[in-house]
Amino acid sequence: MKSFACGDVVPGCEARWVCSTEDEVLVEVASHARTVHGMHEVPAGLVESVRRSIVTVGS
C-alpha cells in the first residue's frame, strides 16, 4: 500500500490517501489538485514532490 498526505507539499491541507499503487495515489491527488486547489494542470515539479512524499505502508 502507498500513502500520501497533501500537507507534505501543500502546508495546511489535511487530505490523505492510502491506495494500492503509486499510480492510484497520483490519480487521486491530481483530481484533488483540480477540485480543491484549483490547479487545472499540475506542474512537473509538484508531481515530483508528491512522488518523493509517497510512502509505503503496511507489509
Mean pLDDT: 95
Largest sheet: 3 strands, antiparallel
- Say what oligomer this is: single chain
| Overall form | globular
Q: How large, in whole angstroms, is the Cα Rg?
A: 11 Å
> Could you say which structural class the secondary elements and strand pairing correspond to?
alpha+beta
What's the N-to-C terminus distance? 8 Å
Q: What's the arrangement of strands in the largest beta sheet?
A: 2-1-3
Considering DSSP H and I runs of 4 or more, what fraction of the residues is helical?
A: 40-55%
How many strand segments?
A: 3
In short:
The chain is of the alpha+beta class. 41% of the residues lie in helices and 17% in strands.
Note the main attributes of this structure.
2 helices, globular, single chain, 3 strands, alpha+beta, 59 residues, three-stranded antiparallel β-sheet
Chain-wise SSE layout:
Layout (H helix, E strand, L loop, with lengths): L1 E4 L10 E4 L2 H14 L8 H10 L1 E2 L3
Antiparallel strand pairs: 1-2, 1-3
What does this structure look like?
- The chain has 59 residues and is α+β, with helices and mostly antiparallel strands.
- It has two helices and three strands; from the N terminus they run ββααβ.
- The chain has helices at residues 22-35, 44-53, and strands spanning 2-5, 16-19, 55-56.
- It has a three-stranded antiparallel sheet with strand order 2-1-3, with helices on one face.
- The radius of gyration is 11 Å and the shape is globular.
